[in-house]
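All the exercises in this workshop are built on plain-text protein records. The record below serves as our worked example for the rest of this section.
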Amino acid sequence: MATYLDRILEHHRHVERRPAAPLDVLVDEARRLPPTRGFRAALERVGASSLGVIAEVKRRSPSKGDLAVGLDPAVLARQYEAGGATCLSVLTDEDFFGGSFADLVAARDAVGLPVLRKDFTVHELDVVDTRMGGADAVLLIAAALDDAELAAFHDLAVEIGLDVLVEIHDEAEADRAAAVGATLVGVNQRDLVTFEVDTDRAVRVAPLLGVDVVRVAESGVRGPDDAAVLRAAGYHAVLVGESLVTAGDPEAGVAALRAVC
């Protein structure tokens, strides 16, 4: 049975790419860009004493439909920053999530926070585009990539100055993340087949992550109670989108998550 991820990946893998220059030329250009804002470093710094929050700019979801299609990414980013967000995550997938690079640029320009490009990385050009487009970190979904792709994309991202959030869903993928030297790992609690959230998943997987790994729990964080459980399990940060973009007061929503410690 095809999962939602299968359908999205099939779409992304068949997108026609017309780069402005050969890949090696683009990689050289990316290497020469100014340093990023330090996504992993920000999470590690905050996570040493409290729970960090990666607040997400998210217009819609394949499972829930429209969430906040009319949001202003700059306004939302400033609300998140005022609430104490450590970093931002911005959806740039247009077809399934209604996002864009314009959302990422607008959000990043509005605040001083590091920004993750949240998208489906399936090609070296996606990694380079992430750096050239202004993001500070790239997402690599282990379930979307084979071992060679995961290693190659991870190495390329590091080479051009990006932090890499390797997203995993289970114990086997935790081993795969370790094999490529991932130092920033997100555990997504959403099942890729049923799309249901298993709120115990991150707690189960946490002991398998290395002591030097900055740990992020994703999906299913509905409020401070969930965040407190994840902090107790050893997570440095939570990535939260749906509950914040649908909240009447995103600033207060972030502040409540930060206050769990």
The chain has one domain: 4-258. The mean pLDDT is 93.
